[in-house]
Amino acid sequence: MTAPLSTLTPALSPPPVLPDIRDQSRETLAAAFNGWNVPAYRLTQLLQWLYERRAPSWDAMTNLPKSLRDQLAQTWSLGSFTLVLKQGTKEATQKFLWRLSDGSLIESVLIPANPALYGETADRHTLCVSTQVGCAYGCRFCASGLDGWKRNLQPWEIAGQILEIERWHSSLPKGEQSPLTGDRLINNLVIMGMGEPLANYDNLMIALRILNAPWGGNIGARKITISTSGLVPKIRQLAEEPEQFRLAISLHGATDAVRNQIMPVNRKYPVAELSAACHYYVSRKGKMITLEYILIQGVNDALPEAKILADLAWKLHAKVNLIPYNTVEGLTWKRPDEKRCITFAKAVRRDGTSVTLRMEKGHDIDAACGQLRLKTEKELTATAVSDLSQPIELAPA
Ligand code: SAH
Ligand code: SF4
């Protein structure tokens, strides 16, 4: 009788996954180079390959000796992800759907110059970045949380969204590239893609520090806005960090009654605790925060809610960014009509608060983050994304 095959051949274990080199700080890399007796200028060359020239492989790093490239390849991996789908044109919002090495799908959204939103001056491009695959927070209106949480993104998978898009952009024929004033496409980041960034805090901080560093992405901390649904202890932790990252709160309701209805996180961290944490952040940083407020018909668009929102914003010295809700397939929430949105915006502004209302041309079924992934996973054919119009700026009355 022959032995079963499994007893004859040892089970093949997958090769060990090395940590990615773009998860490492400059100090870690410098210590390794030191240990290998490699001169410091080689580290400068390596960092240029990683973050300026966005090299896709070790072999592409042609001015590094082969022996050093081999040593690097034995110590770290250099992962990449694949562009599955791109929607939109260079004049408008462009959405990128990526497949990661484990098959997970994530989205990034590239938004052309729009100084009125998060940047201070005429920005080149803003990138909206994902931090998790799916989301555990299950806000009732959001596509990202519909299938639950799958995993946290690694630091390099967060930073890699910027690098991959810049690599994609530089590979386009000149006529198809967006005009640039410098050599980088992206100089403004909003951490508002799929996932709750503050629930992946440590990886986010590693990625943002690399993107912020002069030897890395060289994007100023003031050009990076982190959006959260309201994780109070993490907002306080962020307040203690030395960098001046900007903070946006996905408020979407100024009272517990409204927030509890649409955001389960509010049961853990109600409005009073959230606003105290925001106060703390503002007092530590001395910077204005933004309150994001999606307008959903019949849920949070009543005028008394606008008054409470105005009071809250005024107390926090916060800006308010009103966004008419984008319909999500499978969910019944609707956006209010344009007149209602403008009336609500004026009611918030009346109390002296700075308000932005971002209206879109036409209705855009795929506009909200997480929807593209959801659709693709359901193997539906994606439709084209319509343009975002300029935001309507309402100065304080
Ligand atoms: N988890 C973080 C960041 C990602 S969500 C957060 O909640 O802040 C980014 C923003 O998109 C949030 O303000 C979120 O409330 C908003 N959003 C989600 N679904 C939306 C939809 N269908 N229409 C408009 N905005 C939406
Ligand atoms: Fe998660 Fe933010 Fe969507 Fe809420 S709004 S489910 S926190 S991604």
Describe the protein in words.
This protein is α/β, with parallel strands linked by helices and 397 residues long. It has two domains: 21-75, DNA polymerase, domain 1 (Orthogonal Bundle); 82-383, Alpha-Beta Barrel (TIM Barrel). 33% of the residues lie in helices and 16% in strands. Helix 2 (26-35) crosses helix 3, helix 5 (155-170) crosses helix 6 and helix 11 packs across helix 12. The structure holds S-adenosyl-L-homocysteine and iron/sulfur cluster. Iron/sulfur cluster binds at residues 135, 137-139, 142, 144-145, 195-196, 229, 250.
Describe, in short, the structure shown:
The chain is of the alpha/beta class and 397 residues long.
List the helices and strands and how they pair.
Blueprint: H1 5-8, H2 26-35, H3 40-52, H4 66-75, E1 82-87, E2 94-99, E3 105-112, E4 125-128, E5 132-134, E6 149-152, H5 155-170, E7 188-191, H6 201-212, E8 224-228, H7 232-239, E9 246-250, H8 256-262, H9 265-268, H10 271-285, E10 290-295, H11 303-316, E11 319-324, H12 338-349, E12 355-357, H13 371-377, E13 392-394
Parallel strand pairs: 4-7, 7-8, 8-9, 9-10, 10-11, 11-12
Antiparallel strand pairs: 1-2, 2-3, 3-4, 5-6, 12-13
The protein binds S-adenosyl-L-homocysteine and iron/sulfur cluster.
